[in-house]
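Hi support team,

I've been running sequence recovery on a batch of backbones for a student project. Most finish fine, but this one hangs at about 90% for roughly twenty minutes before it completes. I'm not sure whether the input is malformed or the queue is just slow. I've pasted the structure tokens below so you can try to reproduce it. Let me know if you need the job ID as well.

Thanks,
M.K.
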């Protein structure tokens, strides 16, 4: 069974503000399989976090993963996806639904909260996405 490890992060400068996502996907041996970074435009921190999660899950589906371990530094998003918190924000509900649909495509999906300092690679990519947008203007 092909297992991939996903680290995802969303960043917004202001809430809402210019936002970006960063995703690092590695195989079970820790070998980099894919990096994703994308500028989102105006978004909230939580929207960016969900969009990063969705991008990572979609890429894992595309890469043929049957099992994924997801690590994110948003306690809110992790606990909503795990069913521990309700999704009260109307703007997050469609993103939550999309994430849950993608999660359903895997035989196994574990999602865990990690502190920001353990998510540096994904955080760096999210910030590169925002910075590169303003450099290219």
């Amino acid at each position: 069974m092909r297992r991939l490890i996903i680290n995802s992060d969303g960043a917004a400068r202001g809430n809402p503000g210019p936002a970006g996502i960063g995703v690092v996907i590695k195989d079970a041996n820790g070998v980099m399989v894919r990096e994703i970074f994308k500028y989102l435009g105006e978004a909230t921190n939580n929207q960016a976090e969900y969009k990063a999660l969705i991008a990572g899950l979609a890429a894992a589906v595309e890469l043929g993963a049957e099992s994924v371990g997801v690590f994110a530094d948003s306690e809110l998003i992790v606990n909503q996806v795990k069913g521990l918190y309700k999704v009260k924000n109307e703007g997050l509900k469609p993103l939550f639904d999309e994430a849950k649909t993608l999660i359903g495509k895997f035989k196994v999906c574990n999602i865990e909260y990690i502190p920001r300092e353990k998510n540096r690679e994904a955080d760096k990519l999210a910030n590169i996405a925002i910075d590169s947008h303003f450099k290219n203007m």
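--
Follow-up from support: It reproduced on our side and the slowdown came from queue contention, not your input. Residues 3-135 form a domain with the Nucleotidyltransferase; domain 5 fold (CATH 3.30.420.10). No action needed from you.
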